[in-house]
Amino acid sequence: MSITSPSFADEALDPSAHRPASVESKIVAVRAIPYAIPYSKPLHFASGSIDVADNVLVEVETEDGIVGFAEAPPRPYTYGETQESIVAAIDRLFAPAVVGLALSDREKVRVRLERTVGNPTAKSAIDMAMWDAIGKTFNTPVHKLLGGHADGLRVSHMLGFDPPASVAEQALVLRDELGVTSFKIKVGRRPIRLDVAVCQAVRDALGPEAEIYIDGNRGWSAAESAEALRMLADVGLSRVEELCPADDILSRRWLVAQCTVPFVADESVATPANVTREILSGAATAISIKTARTGFSDSLRVSHLAEGLGVEVVIGNQIDGHIGTICSLAFGASQASTSRHAAELSNYLDMADHLLTEPLRIADGEMRVLPGAGLGIEIDPEKLARYRTDN
Ligand code: MUC
Ligand code: MG
């Protein structure tokens, strides 16, 4: 009779064969995979437009064979990143800095990534893919690890530039088919009367119950913004976002001081330090949190900082694809402050396809976090092969 069973023999050959996955496991690879999926409905706004999701899928693999997923959306008009620059930053700078550290070394990873300035979406995707791998390692959903406040969020939809009747019709379809009752309307860099007509058309179509707010993406001056707010007084806006540039320091302060609803800082608050500066200087009175630019680790910092400063937060949309939406949803659901308002989660609906094995769902105006460990992201290998652009 043999004294070694086959499994014992396997273990002797490979000591890690039956070891449970551990957050002490080392990261063995960080992969940046560019892909391109067209939008069936392009989005136009004051600072740019988008007709293809030319995102970067980021994979963080550990020595346990666990793979965490996230994605980085290039937004050159907001952060200066392109799909090519994100891939290059990860391949040449970030992957070599991170490989060899453990999943539990998140703060060490952050310090190493911060040695390079900028590149917020590349850094954030690595952070979120690490959290996904940590969740899979603990067999726990990421939103529970981050705080576990809720299992879902109300959805707000972002409406881009189009004629008034068309924007109103889009809002009605979202309301009637998916139950969405909160809408952000893009304004700025075109005749104010046109933007006012769009907002009024949406209000007339939806009635008084719906939430409507506007985002200027820095497309007006402070004086134009003040004029627009006067003309929009009867529309009933719940808040306004980044109407004029934060760099117009005194005139922005002048505008925010006369604003009767929260003034949300979005692209001007890409870091926790920016949040402090903008709020304390009177350049904003609320904060948009986008996991695409602050990952989960810095989104926690931003949400706690905003709470300490006593200002409201909203989960914004970096025109996220499906994977980015899953990340925004997981983070938004995890905190009380980010669950309070409807979260901007639905613009993936305008994409022609996705990389997932299952489509995302919105029902009764809500999205539920995906079941399963980590972020619940399941990549369809055939779709990835079809849409990746690096082969
Ligand atoms: C938004 O809220 O501004 C448009 C530009 C950008 O950076 O994000 C989007 C949406
Ligand atoms: Mg915005």
Automatic annotation (TrEMBL):
InterPro entries with a match to the protein in the record: Enolase-like_C_sf, Enolase-like_N, Enolase_C-like, Mandelate_racemase_C, Mandelate_racemase_N_dom, Muconate_cycloisomerase_anti
Q: Which Pfam families match?
A: MR_MLE_C, MR_MLE_N
Mandelate racemase/muconate lactonizing enzyme C-terminal domain location, by residue? 164-262
Ranges annotated as spanning the membrane: none
Q: Which domain of life is it from?
A: Bacteria
Asked whether the UniProt record includes Isomerase among its keywords, one would answer: yes
Alphabetical keyword list: Isomerase, Metal-binding
Keyword Cytoplasm assigned to the entry: answer is no
Family under the similarity heading? Belongs to the mandelate racemase/muconate lactonizing enzyme family.
Name the UniProt record assigns to this protein: L-alanine-DL-glutamate epimerase-like enolase superfamily enzyme
Q: Which organism is it from?
A: Subtercola frigoramans
